[in-house]
Design a protein that fits this description.
The complex is a heterodimer.
Chain A: E1 2-3, H1 4-14, E2 19-22, H2 29-33, E3 41-44, H3 48-62, E4 66-70, H4 74-77, H5 80-88, E5 93-99, H6 115-118, E6 125-128, H7 135-147, E7 153-159, H8 160-164, E8 166-167, H9 189-200, E9 204-208, H10 210-214, H11 218-228, E10 232-234, E11 249-252, H12 259-267, E12 270-274, H13 280-283, E13 294-299, E14 313-316, H14 319-330, H15 339-345, H16 360-372, E15 377-381, H17 385-393, E16 402-404, H18 414-424, E17 429-435, H19 436-439, H20 446-452, E18 457-462, H21 467-476, H22 492-498, E19 502-506, H23 519-529, E20 534-539
Parallel strand pairs in A: 2-3, 2-4, 4-5, 5-7, 6-7, 9-10, 9-12, 10-11, 12-13, 13-14, 15-16, 15-17, 17-18, 18-20, 19-20
Antiparallel strand pairs in A: 1-8
Helix pairs in contact in A: 1-7, 3-5, 3-18, 9-14, 11-14, 16-17
Chain B: E1 2-8, H1 14-23, E2 31-37, E3 40-47, H2 51-63, E4 67-73, H3 77-88, H4 101-107
Antiparallel strand pairs in B: 1-3, 1-4, 2-3
The chains are: A alpha/beta, B alpha+beta.
Chain lengths: ~575, ~110
């Protein structure tokens, strides 16, 4: 006979879980009581949001299911932002929440919330567990839905009395879903249509999104793109899926995408979309998105098709299957030569000039940091201007190498996210880039970094504003900087040192000499190679802007550039 | 107005996920009927939606884990009769006789 809590942990082990992130409390206490000897290592965060973001960082960097644990009531509600983040960015996540005793559910008991109802629209699947006997089956289902199809978050609500109850345990369950009539895997018949469309196209282009790396199909996709040689660009979550050195690769597309990528998208007459959901940060005004293009949309989640713009040819299925099928058929036919179009789209006259304005010091710092990163490294970015500069300058071809909260844009993600990434990849260099706003949202996780001795390299880009909001206020609200002033920021170096983290400051003048051997260059080398956690505060010009920028509701043809 | 017939396995939260797909878009639901149907369940919804919303809703519903099938159709007359009744029915229940002013204030 085992207690429900023991059964939960045994089933987690059967699912390959060896690490979970959480914060204890009353209703989840029996699970914590059973941890010793369970084989599951628990990482104590300092806020449940830190725990769930860390679980996400673990999952985003590995593709494995991240597990977050919280108690009932406020513990569970503190997970909600992370659950929403996982849903938007297709992160496989299982959240275990404690719940009050079964007879008290629905009575507004102490620390009771309807977390099942609260997270219904944010989860792929969820369950309020009703008997200790159903725990194995429920956990098997939870992990199945978190991993399969389009990955996403799952919540299991565990009443405390069931965690204490005992039953015979006959081993972990295996879940086999009912086949859905609508689960249509596209067979190779799509290829004939796609080939016909490619043979008619004069200006084909390719857009690569998160699905390319989530599917594990990056190698096959790169092979296909090498064959097609069409101008190619990526969403923020597709960065790293295409080798940046390829002559046909134009960088990130969308609101802060490169000039060349946005122009090519706007001019294309055939757009091959690989695992991107065409969200509004990429499309701009949907009615003016790729106005001349017919769309072929490779996508595992049928709900993402035609959502923003109708596609002419949907290719529904796992990219790991559909891309090799497409490649095999394409290799048998000849396609029109699009070298003239490629020369225009990828030409030097469309290349973006380097920033000359106030953003220059920050961009140069990021360039120098990224240049110094070893091959086995990750960049975890928070949300804001620094995120966009980091995405624009990221040059690695590591598919899971650039990690950020994209769809939800949740500030405070980077520091706990980096914790999860470092724990999942202990030999890697993990560079956490955050703004002065975002770092304060989960700054308590410096304690987690310190306790675990994680050698995370944390850069705080401190412009003493909520920079991205300030930029919009400058450009669209007549410079009315309402509630974006952070000029009274605390001393981040002192805070870092108070948490036992080595910390130092770097000013904008320090980066000017980085092109030649310099004290600052040596400082960055020491910073990145340190065996310990390090915090570097970069005080940068306060009113720098991210360019290019497509205004919200605009089309990519209305890009704003520096000096406009 | 359009009618949608959705067949689903009546597991925890499935009906709520189906309804949430409409409610999150601010779409009123003047007619909803859920009932057992052979070995599964079905829900019939009457919604005032445009063509784009029909496509979005059907795709969202099909993505719900335990939804089996989605079919759209034209509304039956008796369903349409619910529409006007829904909009004219007061949303608050009729007040019972209350013992006193303080109780009324507490219930306000």
């Amino acid at each position: 006979m085992l207690k429900g809590a023991q059964i939960v942990l045994r089933c987690l082990r059967s699912e390959g879980v060896d690490l979970m992130f959480g914060y204890p409390g009353g209703a989840i206490m029996p699970l914590y009581d059973a941890l010793e000897g369970s084989g599951v290592r628990h990482i104590l965060a300092r806020h449940e949001q830190g725990a769930v973001f860390a679980a996400e960082g673990y999952a985003r960097s590995t593709g494995k299911v991240g597990v977050a644990v919280a108690t009932s009531g406020p513990g569970a509600t503190n997970l909600v932002t992370g659950i929403a983040d996982a849903k938007m960015d297709s992160v496989p996540l299982v959240c275990l929440t404690g719940q009050v005793r079964s007879p008290l559910i629905g009575t507004d008991a102490f620390q009771e919330t309807d977390v099942f109802g609260l997270t219904l629209s944010l989860t792929k699947w969820s369950r309020l567990v009703r008997s200790v006997e159903e725990i194995p089956e429920v956990i098997a289902q939870a992990f199945y839905w978190a991993r399969n199809g389009r990955p996403g978050p799952v919540v299991l609500d565990l009443p405390v009395d069931l965690l204490k109850a005992t039953t015979e345990f006959h081993g972990a369950a295996v879940f086999r879903p009912h086949p859905k009539p609508s689960d249509v895997s596209t067979d190779s018949t799509f290829c004939a249509t796609m080939i016909a469309m490619l043979q008619q196209a004069k200006r084909p282009a390719a857009l690569v999104g998160a699905g390319a790396r989530l599917s594990g199909a990056v190698t096959e996709l790169r092979r296909l793109l090498d064959y097609l040689q069409v101008p190619t660009f990526a969403t923020v979550h597709g960065l790293g899926a295409v080798s940046p050195g390829k002559p046909y690769y134009l960088g990130m597309v969308g609101m802060h995408g490169t000039r060349a990528a946005n122009l090519a998208l706007n001019e294309s007459d055939l757009l091959l979309v690989f695992g991107a959901r065409l969200d509004d940060r990429v499309t701009g005004e949907p009615s003016r998105f790729a106005p001349h293009a017919r769309i072929v949309h490779f996508e595992i989640d049928p709900a993402q098709l035609d959502r923003v713009r109708p596609c002419e040819l949907p290719v529904i299925g796992d990219l790991a299957e559909t891309i090799p099928t497409a490649s095999a058929e394409l290799s048998r036919v000849s396609l029109p030569d699009c070298s003239a179009w490629r020369a225009v789209a990828c030409g030097q006259d469309r290349a973006q000039p380097d920033s000359r304005g106030m953003a220059q010091p920050t961009i140069r710092l990021l360039d120098e940091l990224f240049r110094r990163l070893p091959e086995n490294s990750f960049v975890v970015a928070d949300v804001g201007q620094h995120q966009m500069w980091a995405a624009q300058r990221y040059r690695s071809d590591k598919p899971r190498g650039f990690i950020t909260s994209g769809g939800l844009g949740a500030m405070g993600f980077a520091l706990p996210g980096a914790i999860g990434v470092q724990l999942a990849n202990p030999e890697a260099t993990v560079l956490c880039v955050s703004g002065d706003g975002g770092i304060q949202m989960n700054i308590q996780e410096l304690a987690t970094v310190r306790r675990l001795g994680l050698p995370i390299k944390i850069v705080v880009v401190d412009n003493k504003y909520l920079g991205m909001v300030r930029q919009w206020q400058q450009l669209f609200y007549n410079r009315n900087y309402a509630e974006t002033d952070m000029s009274d920021n605390p001393d981040f170096v002192a805070i870092g040192r108070a948490y036992g983290i080595k910390a130092e400051k770097l000013g904008p003048d320090s980066v000017s000499g980085l092109q030649t051997p310099s004290e600052t260059g040596a400082q960055l080398d020491r910073f990145l190679k340190s065996p310990d956690a390090e915090l570097l505060v970069f005080e940068c010009p306060p009113e720098a802007n991210v360019y290019p920028m497509v205004p919200s509701g605009g089309s990519v043809s209305e890009m704003l550039f520096e000096d406009e | 107005m359009h009618v949608f017939h959705i067949r689903y396995r009546n597991t925890q939260g499935t009906l709520m996920r189906i309804l949430t797909a409409a409610s999150r878009r601010g779409i009123d639901m003047p007619y909803v009927q859920a009932e057992p149907s052979e070995h599964t369940h079905k829900v019939t919804l009457l919604l005032d939606v445009n063509g784009k919303q029909i496509g979005q809703l059907c795709r969202d519903w099909r993505a719900v884990v335990d939804v089996i099938a989605v079919r759209a159709g034209a509304p039956l007359k008796e369903m349409m009769d619910y529409g006007p009744a829904w909009s004219t029915t007061p949303h608050l229940p009729p007040q019972a006789a209350l013992p006193g002013e303080r109780t009324q204030q507490a219930l306000a």
